[in-house]
Amino acid sequence: MSARGVSIALGVSVLVLFVPGAQAATIAPNSGFEMECAGVPCSWQAAAGTLAWDNTTANSGSASAHVTGIFEQSGIRSDCITLSAWGGYTNTFAYRALGDGSAPTGVFWNVYHYADSACTPATFLFGNGPSFNSVTADGQWHQTPVQFLFIANTVGSVQLSLQFLCGGSPGCPAPATRSVWFDDTDFEPPAPTAVAVRSFAATRSRAGVTLRWRTAVEAKVLGFNVYRSAGARSVRVNRVLIPAAGALTGRWYTLLDRAPIAVGGAAYRLQAIGLDGTRAWAGTVRVAR
Asked: Could you state, in order of their start, the residue ranges of all structural domains in the chain?
């Protein structure tokens, strides 16, 4: 399962340099790789650089996508996604970069828009990226904030692209090959409930694991649930729904998990419940044992 959420937080626009053309060889979906295309697993292909599955590290699940490149802008592209609705879409992903000098300077989404429903190159309209995230190169997994992207009703399909920048022109500065790992990526259609989560963190202590999250805005939100998962098992941490403050400027929330996983790490997922009963994932965080 991937981290899901609904957001109206704005990011920084990124100029698109890559124009879709000939299809590169695809790599088949990996059941342990939690990356989705509008709710379903999809194939991903190298748009520039090299893509390989890594079964030794993951933000959650059992695999991640390791992308390496020698170009200023390298990345991977998804299958074609036929849109079911137009309006505000949201996205988030997790990344991992090492502190050995191989890390890029930034990671971001690009979304390529097509007029038809099959991503036909002749109907390509434009590409844009709603967010740019500077990289924390410490070998740990980091989830990017949920970002908002408006898609007009003239768009029939999109392709997603996860890309990184390495700060050199032309090409990357030494070392020649930059690398980054991607996981837990999600692209969500419009939803009636709007909540932007600025941060979601977990801290282990003798008392248990303290979960803290900060919303930026809340609209038509009834409350929140937090789920703890390890392997295939998922358990709700809070006994009753945590009421939302309904603040247009957001607020802080805190929850203590008094019975955390004692051995190994665990993932915590934040779920927002709308006034109409709709449910949306708003963030994921991992905590080590």
From this structure: 26-188, 194-287
In the chain, the amino acid numbered 229 is S
Q: Which two tokens stand for residue 185?
A: 């990526």
The CATH architecture of the domain made up of 26-188 is: Sandwich (2.60)
pTM of the model: 0.57
Q: Name the pairing type of β-strands 87-96 and 50-54.
A: unpaired
> Taking the CB of residue 204, how many other CB atoms lie within 10 A of it?
15
Model confidence pLDDT, tens digit, residues 194-248 = 677 888 899 988 888 999 999 877 777 889 999 988 776 788 999 999 998 876 6
Residue 288 per-residue DSSP state: -
Cα–Cα distance between 211 and 184 in angstroms, integer? 19
* Domain spanning 194-287, CATH architecture: Sandwich (2.60)
- If we measure between CA atoms, which residue out of 217, 227, 222 comes closest to residue 285? 227
Q: Are 225 and 273 in contact (CB under 8 A)?
A: yes
Of 235, 234, 240, the residue nearest 273 (C-alpha): 240
Written as one letter, the residue type at 196 is A
The pair of three-digit structure tokens given for residue 126, joined into one six-digit string = 């434009």
